[in-house]
Structure formats: structure tokens, C-alpha cells
Specification:
The protein is an alpha+beta fold. It contains eight helices and twelve strands. An eight-stranded antiparallel beta sheet has the order 1-2-10-7-12-5-4-3.
Length: 301
Amino acid sequence: MAGPLISLESDSFDPWKLQAVSHRLCGHPLLQIESLVALGRRLESRKLVRTHSDTATAGTAFGDAPSLHPNQRSAEETLAGIAEARAWMSLLNVQADPVYRTLVDEVLDAVRPFVDRVDPGMSFRGGWIFVTSPGAVTPFHMDHEHNFILQIRGKKRLYTWDPLDRGIISERAQELFHDQHSREEVRWDESFRARARVFDLEPGMGGYMPSTAPHMVENGDEPSITVSFTYYTAATRRRELLYRGNARMRAHGMSPSPVGQSPLRDNVKAAVLSAYMESRARLLRALGRGVRDNKLDYAPT
């Protein structure tokens, strides 16, 4: 493909700002429905498919949507008949598939030079493909990774919020999310719409969402294919560490200062926590226990 795979609105890339992007991936053979049906068949056997029906709403608890609003069809059946399936489907961690890992590398290698200039240390790379029936909704939630979300087919409305807006996601919600991967305190309110940055996505368009930027998606009146390319950086790893530290301090009755309020305190906390976590990881490995390592090249499956 000639030209950049992903283009930003401006020459300056701020890793903590929501921003529009454009892309040249709509005709990519791996993102056509025939290829995705085959991918869905392969990933379902590895339990790397997540799905729910179109009865889920913005306020549905994201983690519970598959059980509260089940889609009984297989991945192959859902994807092949997505126009009538009344379903939302996500193909998870597509970098687990050797063919699709090449796509993840192709895209993230292309954006890495301008990302690294301001936000180095790209790791935990991943890809996610969303295939959605008309009118289906992605419930309100947030994710750990930085995210380029790109529209391939159809139209959808992407609502996003500043990850630092504590009127949308509280400091406590951030702590629970980073420490326990809990979205229990990530709760939808209809009043949030007025504070959203809205992207009306069509093929060739997309958005960039920083780590923990809350978002919710409403699909248009035709089937949709959307792909996300995600990653951590040194900054997201440090931020996760600080929130985990604050969560542990709060659990012991302390009242830690919010992340970002005092750079000096954050620096001290980060140094202490990093040394502690590295020592703990060495001990766990010596005991033969697994350790989550977000410095890996690819997100594990």
C-alpha cells in the first residue's frame, strides 16, 4: 500500500490526547469478512472470541455483557451472517494468529517512529477486530493500552473521554482497574454524553485513545468492521505501577496523593515500587510461578 498506513490530524503527536486519525487499511485482504470468518473459526478454538447480543446497552457492565446478553451462535456463523446476527463480536489478541501478527507488526512498526519520539518503550502489542451488527452497542468501559481504532466497513459513533477527567472516571476507579483489573467503579451515566469527544467514523477514518480513556460505541444502520491496534509504553507501565501502589497503600489505611498531583512524590513512589516489583517477580520466578510482564513484545493470550 502506498503512503502511510495511519496518518494523524497534525504533525505533533501527544500520547495523552484524544485525536482523529485516517488510515489506508480498508482494502487489506486480512480485514475482509471472508478472512475474518476463517480467523474467527481459528480463534474460537482458542477461546479468543468475545460476543454479546445487540440487547446490550451503554450502561451494561462491560465484563458481564456476554453472560447478560448472550449470543448463542458460533463465531463462524455470527461473522458470516453479521447483517442479521444481531450481535457484537470481538476477535481478541489476533497477534496470537501467525498470519495476523504480521498485520499487527505492519501497522505498529509504521507508527512507532513518531510514537517513540514522545512516548518510547512500545511493548505488549496487540490487535483486536470488532465485527458488529446494525445498531449494536459497545458498553462504556476503559482499557489499559494506548489504542489506534480504525474503521474498515460501515459507520459507527465513538464516544470518548479524557482519561484525566475525574468527573467521568474517579481516582479510586483507576486504582481498582490497574490493581485488580476491576471495572466495578466504571459506571455509565447518560450525562456523560455532553462531555464526550465524539468521532463519527466511516471507512478510512479512526481515532487515537490514550490508556484508560473511557469510551462507548454505537454502531450505525449497517454491519461494521473495526480494528484496534494497541500497545503499552514506558509511561503507561509507570502509570499502572503508581496506581497499583496507591491501591495497596489505601488498602492499608493510608490516603495516597492522586497520581500526577506531585511529580516529586510520583518519582519517589515509582522508584520504590519498581524495585519492590522487580524483587517480587524474581522471587516468584524462582518459585516457578508465573509473572505478568507488560514489557513483553506482544500481549500474551
